[in-house]
Amino acid sequence: MTKLVVAKFGGSAIGPNGVSIPEIIQRITNLKQDSKVIAVFSAPLTLDNGKKRSLTDVMLEQGRNAENGVTPSLDIIKSTYEKILELVDDENKGKCENVIEQNLEKAKKALDEAFESKEFVDEVRSRALAFSGEILMSHVMNYILRSNKIKAETVDFEDWPIITDNNIESTNFLTSESRTKMDKTAELVEQNEVVTIGGFIGKTVDNVTTTYERGGSDRTAADLGILFHKSYETSIDFEKDSAVVSADPKIVESGLREVHQLSYNEARLAGMFGMKILDPIAIKEIVENGVDMPITVTNMKNPDKITTIKRILDEQKGHPIKIVTGKENCAIFRIETNSIQKLLTSLDKDKRYSEFVILSPFTKDGIEFSRILFLDGDYVKRNEKYLLGFDSLATITYNRGVITLIGDEMWRVQQVASRTSAKIGEAGLNILNMDAQEETSRIIIVVEDTKDNIRKAISAIHQEISEINFI
C-alpha cells in the first residue's frame, strides 16, 4: 500500500513573515521521497511592532474594530503576504498575486459585513479568518512548492473535504458526510507529490464556512488521516520547533528529559492539561473513529529528534512519569451525584465538549456530590446558566489551577503521590485537592491559581521526579 504522510505546519513552524518556509520546503522534500504528502497549514505569523503575532489574532482584532465602528484594515495582513510572496519564482508569481488578491477581497467583504452589522460572529467571522489565514496560506504554499520544482496542488474551498456540524465557531467533524466530499481531494493526492490544504476551517453540508476552536489545524490533520487511512498507509506528522520533552521548556529550564514515545491516552491527557503537543480533540476523534495510525511530533530543525504517539506502545523503558504539566484558569463544578448523568450526556451530545475530568466524589450531610474539573474557566463563565440548569443548588469555584503528572505506567513509581505533595508544600503552596487513581494514568493536584503558583509547582515536582532513576 502506498504511504501517505499528513504533515501539519503551524504558525510557529512557518515563522514571522514566512522566515522558516525554506526549512518547510526541505522537510516536505524529504517526506515526499517515499510518501505522498498532504501538507496542512495554519495562518502565518507576522511582526507587529517587533512582536510575533498570528494573522488570526490580527484578523480577530480587526473584527473587533468593525464591531465597534472602527474601520478595519488589512494592511498588516497584506504586508505579511507581500513578504512571503518573495519566495515565489517569476513563473508562479503572477498567479500567486492573483490568489492573494482574491482571498483578501473575500476577507475584506466579511469585515465590511461586520462593520455594517456591528457583529463579528458566526460565518462572517469564519470567512474572515479562513480567507486571510489558513486557506490563503495553503494556496501561497502551493506556489512556493511549485517554485521549488515540487509537483503540488491545493484544495479549493469549493471541494473542501472537511464537513462539520452547524456549530459555526467551534464546530465538530462529521466523518460520514466528509467521506462523500473527499473525491476531489483524493484525486489530487493521487495525481501529485504534495497537496496543500488549510487547517482549522470546515464547511457544513449547506456550504456555510465554519472553524474549529484555536489549535484546530491539529484536528484537520487528524481528520484527513481518518479519511485516508483505508486508502493509504497513513501517518500524521506534526512539525514543531521541538519534539516532546518532560515539561514545558518555558517553565523548566534544566533537567528536561526527551520523551520518545507516548500512548494516545498520554498525549491526549498532556494536551488537555496544558502541554502544547497537539489538540487533545484530534486524538479523541481518531479513537472515536476506530483508527490506529502512528503520529509523530518532529523537531523541524533537527528531524532526527521525534516523539512517536501510538495507540499501543512498545515495551516501556525509562521513567514511567512521562510529563509534568499545568493548566491555569480552571473551575470546579460541584453537583449532586443524582443530577450529574444528565449533564454529562448533554455535554457530550449537545455541546460536544470534553475538556473536563471527573474528580472523586464526596459526601456531605448524607448527600453525595460529584465534582467536575473544567479545564477552561472562561467556558464555564460563558455557560453558567446552562450548567446550573441541571442543578440550581450546584456551586462553581473559579481561580483554580491544576498540576498534572502523566504516565500510563506511573504505578511503578513508589510513593509518588506523597513525594510530590510534600514538594508542593515545600514550595509554599496549599493543595486544595489531589486526585490519584491508578487507572487514569494521571495524578491531578489542584491549587489556587494566583501569581506564579502553577509554574512554581511544576518546577518543584519536575525536579523531584527527575531524581528518581529508572532503567
Strand content: 15-25%
CATH superfamily of the largest domain: Acetylglutamate kinase-like
CATH class of the largest domain: Alpha Beta
**Second rung of CATH, namely the architecture of the largest domain:** 3-Layer(aba) Sandwich
Mean pLDDT: 94
Nearest-angstrom radius of gyration? 23 Å
Count of all domains: 2
What percentage of residues falls in helices of 4 or more residues?
Answer: 25-40%
Category from helices, strands and their pairing: alpha/beta
- Uncertain segments are none
Domain Aspartate/glutamate/uridylate kinase: 3-298
Family: Belongs to the aspartokinase family.
GO molecular function, one term: aspartate kinase activity
Protein name: Aspartate/glutamate/uridylate kinase
